[in-house]
Each structure stands twice: as structure tokens, then as C-alpha cells.
Amino acid sequence: MVEFNPEPQKRTSSVTLFIALGILVLVLGGVYLYVHYHGSAQQRGAASAVVVPDLLRPGNTNFEYYKTRIRIENIKASLGISFNNARIAMISGILVNDGDRKLEAVQLHVILYDVWGKVSKERTAFALRPGAGYSGKPMEPLEKRPFAIGVESVEYYWNPKQITYEITGLKYQ
Q1: Which residue in 15, 71, 101, 149 could disulfide with 96, CB within 3.0 to 4.6 Å?
Q2: Distance from CA of residue 156 to its chain's centroid?
Q3: Are 49 and 149 a contacting pair, CB within 8 Å?
Q4: CATH architecture, range 52-172
Q5: Arithmetic mean of pLDDT, 90-100
Q6: What's the mean per-residue pLDDT of the chain?
Q7: Domain boundaries, the chain
Q8: What are phi and psi of 84, to 5 degrees?
Q9: Mean pLDDT: which of 30-39, 67-76, 133-142 is highest?
Q10: What is the Cα–Cα distance from 95 to 146, expressed in whole angstroms?
Q11: Contacts of 141 (CB under 8 A, 6+ apart)
């Protein structure tokens, strides 16, 4: 009978050291990339973090002047059900810039009511903002552009026929 005794491979300590350093570099690089991209994705995805610099507010004479040159047409409300059965109100319409300047941002405050006329939900959101939407460009004078604003977790007795909205912020060139 023949007995087989394999000899263990002899590696030099420098080869083992280079392999360990290579694995360490790959792991640290992966952790760095994960933290870098994961952190920036959270900052971009946060809805409350939307800030438009130099937004004009009510009380400002420039706001009051140009607010009269913006129309909202064909406002409609519809109910949607999300994948987890949450009720979502979709408020859509057409934003019309009747002024003579480019419109960069329009912020709307939307109030939803229930069937008894009491306030059900409120939301302030941008119907137009820089870098968002299909084109991401400002609205030209006399241009029309559709918009949609979602309001999450609406009541069962929400009345889609009773909605109020007002312009609470503007930015134009």
C-alpha cells in the first residue's frame, strides 16, 4: 500500500501580507463608497429639505405684484391608493405664467376638507421649482405647464370637490 503525505505549501510571509493588504483596501474602499453615496441619496430624497433661495413671500411687494400674473387652471383632485393601502390625494392642474418674466418657482399651500366642511389635511409644496419636472427649465412668459401635488394619508371622508389653494412663494427672473 502506498501512503500519500502531501507537503504543505510554503508561502512566504510577504505574499500573505500583500493579499491581506489588498483585501483590506477593497473592504475600506467599499465602505467609503457606500457611506458616500448612501448619505448623499438620503439628502436628495428628503422632501422637507427642498429649499429655493431668494423665494418671495406674501407681504413682499414684488410677490404681490407678480402673484396676480399667475393663474391656476383646471384644478382637479383624485384619490389614489398606494401599495400599502394608504389613501393619497392627487391635486393636479395647469400653471399659467401670464406675466412678462421667466417663472422659476411657485409654492402652493393646499387645504383639503372633509364632507362636513372641516379642514382634513394641509400641505405646502412646490408646483414648480428649479431643476425639477420634465424640463427643469423656468417657465417662459405666456407658457402653460401641468403640475401635480400629492397629499398622503387623507381621511376616508375627504371631499374632493372642496379644495382651497393659494400661492405662498414665488421666484422669477
Answers
A1: 71
A2: 26
A3: no
A4: Sandwich (2.60)
A5: 92
A6: 84
A7: 11-49, 52-172
A8: -105, 25
A9: 67-76
A10: 6
A11: 97, 98, 99, 100, 101, 102
